[in-house]
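Weekly structure sync, notes
Attendees: PL (lead), two postdocs, one rotation student
Agenda item 3: pending single-chain targets
PL asked that the sequence for the first pending target be pasted directly into the notes so everyone works from the same version. It is reproduced below exactly as submitted, 494 residues in total.
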Amino acid sequence: MDQTKIDALRAQPIAAFDHLIGGKRIPASDGGRMCIISPIDGTVLTTTAAGTSSDMETAIASARAAFEDGRWASQPPAERKKVLLKWADLIDANALELAVLGVRDNGTEIGMALKAEPGSAAATIRYYAEALDKIYGEIAPTAGDILGMIHKEPVGVVGAIIPWNFPMMVGAWKLGPALAMGNSIVLKPAETASLSLMRMAELALEAGLPPGVLNAVTGEGRVVGKALALSMDVDVLVFTGSGATGRRLMEYAARSNMKRVYLELGGKSPNIVFADAPNLDEAAQVAASGIFRNAGQVCVAGSRLLVEASIHDEFVAAVTKASEAMRVGDPLKVDTHIGAVNSEVQLKANLGFVETATAEGGQVVTGGVRMLEETGGYYMAPTIVTDVTRNSTLAQKEVFGPVLGVTRFASEKEAISLANSTVYGLAGAAWTTNLSRAHRMVNAVRTGVMHINTYGGADGTVPLGGVGQSGNGSDKSLHAIEKYVNLKTAWIKL
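Predicted structure, written out during the meeting:
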């Protein structure tokens, strides 16, 4: 990465953003604006439209009209493929610009952002572009005088509510398969990180996506998100975010048209280290990055470290050393390892978890404090808390910040019991050289993704989904397409 280019992009002023409806930038119907605060230094970057429920209704109507007249859904798969591939190329071509814009908005360290945001988004769009003309219907095994066919049709209008931690990456997980299958979309970005996703949506229009197929409305979730979820004209709602919001969305769906709702919610993922781990130094480095990258603001973060008692002290010391070597600071500097917490509200919540943990008997080994307050930004030292008990707040509640809770265990059975002791089930890991144990851990830990001798890095070829209160349905892989199609049976008497 070229620091000079990054600095030049950082210096550029950011124009105000409006909604994207029917292929045009549209201001809020009442003229409302929201200030976008940079977590890097607490300054106002720009403003976006503060959407109203009326704005959301207009966007939904635009998506519905686009779907019904077939301007996208009726295009041959090969034509949709061309547009999506061009969109991916445009994202790649503008990758650094998009990454810097996103970092200024949400604080992710640039080294991670460039790969995880535009890099991942382009790869995801390209994956589904290549897949869409290879999705076949089915012929049922019927009697000779009957032809049973199963068609896969687009569902119609998809509402997508995207979080602030990785807006482009997570956005592409929803947009890629939904658009590939011919649906129209209404996108609701997060209040505190919408800019890169809005710019990415504009690039879709430049690539040739027909106006109205992809619409985006900025604003508060309690206003425009609620209107999207309550709409009688949205067929499927997809969401990544908190469990509390996910519950409300399901309630809104039940109160309206009983739309299908797919949720990727929180996690309290266990990273389990046995004494026979293949390389304890590597495991310690990965454990640190697995919780502290992006300031811990990762859904699948390994926020619970479960360590076999015989190596507990040694391993905690190694993870502490690795975490203290990680540089916290300006996320637009290429040598920064940990960037800013997304908002002051989130920072205060993170620090509150540390206070609660110590009150409940936890021991802060390192961190636990705000850093670089003089910059005006929202920075927190990577924090490790030991002596975290099974039912403590830090073991049960998702922090979504750079806070690692450590619990020791005496046996494989206890490790499994601890791993499964929360309401969540999004990700997990086990470190061991025992092949049989590795397979037992995969089978026994209730989670959507289980790593062995690594943490993170699963690509788009495999699904990401949760069990328990971590949600339902899957993002990534061909399985994600299932959320965006209806199965229609044709039963023909010959």
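Discussion points:
- The longest strand covers residues 146-154.
- DSSP finds 15 helices and 23 strands in the chain.
Action: rotation student to compare against the earlier draft before next sync.
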